[in-house]
Amino acid sequence: MNTKDIIESYNQMTAGFEKELEERTADEVAYDNVIIQELRKGSSIKKALKIAAEKYPDEALQYDDETIGDIKAHYDYLLNHEAIKNRIKQLR
Question: What angle do CA 91, 42, 65 make, to 5 degrees?
Fold first, then answer.
């Protein structure tokens, strides 16, 4: 499998996630960006959510001990997805 095939395969596998990302409002994107920025700084997910909620209270996610793991997994996936997409842009 060559690089082009790998990129095409990744794009096909993540098409649904990409569609979800495209459907976000500007405030949802901004809220997510704050969380991602904080996670990149090494903040915990709870701290990142708190900071984002202060800036975008209408977008704030509600969570508890049962849901925080799923939220963390979502943002970890989003971080990795963005890194992969940026790498793909560099390869093209």
Answer: 115
| Predicted confidence (pLDDT) per residue in 26-66, tens digit | 999 999 999 999 999 999 999 999 999 999 999 999 999 99
Mean pLDDT value across the chain: 94
> 68-91 and 45-55 helices cross at what angle (nearest 10)?
80
Residue 86 Cα distances to 12, 21, 70, 79, angstroms: 16, 15, 24, 11
Q: pTM score, two decimals?
A: 0.85
Listed by start position, the domains of the chain span 3-91
For residues 43-59, one letter each, b for 16 or more C-beta atoms within 10 angstroms of the residue's C-beta and e for the rest, the string is: eebeebbebbbeebeeb
Residues contacting 51, CB < 8 A, separation 6+: 34, 35, 38, 43
